[in-house]
Amino acid sequence: MALVFDDLLNKGVRAGEIPARTSSARDWYRDQAKGTRSAKPETIVRDKARLTNKTMIGRMYHFYYDPKHKKTLPYYDRFPLIFPFKRVKGGFLGINLHYLPLPLRAKLMDGLYSLANNRNYDEKTKLKISYDILNGASKYKYFKPCIKHYLTPHIRSRFVEIYSSEWDIALFLPTERFVGASKSSVYSDSRKKI
User: Fold this and answer.
1) Which segments within the chain are labelled E, that is strand?
2) Contact by Cβ (8 Å): 124, 59
3) Per-residue pLDDT tens digits for 54-72
4) Residue ranges per structural domain of the chain
5) The pTM is what?
6) CA distance 41 to 64
């Protein structure tokens, strides 16, 4: 997976697009990622340099998940793309961006960039994020269908950290793995919740 990120990042830098810093750069990386077919969950979790056992609030992660109540859920994502925002007993709450269609993912992410703790988009960059902040401004209004509770015993892999310079690439990679409904059904439900 690092190759997918590295290839797109290198291509972008050669084209003069510095990740995350401008809206045109964000759009460029998102367009490139949308057309990438080689990004598969099984490839992503093999990148040992990115694997971690813990999450940090405000960083982006991928991981395999097997919900406790999967038999009663209408659908779920087996390979979430999340920003954790609160630790809770037995796990954490996170925003799974996969629950939004691409245009709404982009709008939410554009709003979330205003919560970054710095503008360097380096290894120290994270979002200063909480439910109150998300609920308090209209620019984050797309977050509601994305809030999910993840239970630690049901996490089925180590976490794969997505670096802040790669957020826009990960945002548009086709890595969602919905069980129980098609993407279009999930997106339709999300639009109703918004």
Assistant:
1) 51-52, 60-62, 76-77, 81-88, 91-96, 147-151, 159-162, 178-179
2) no
3) 999 999 999 999 999 999 9
4) 51-164+171-193
5) 0.91
6) 8
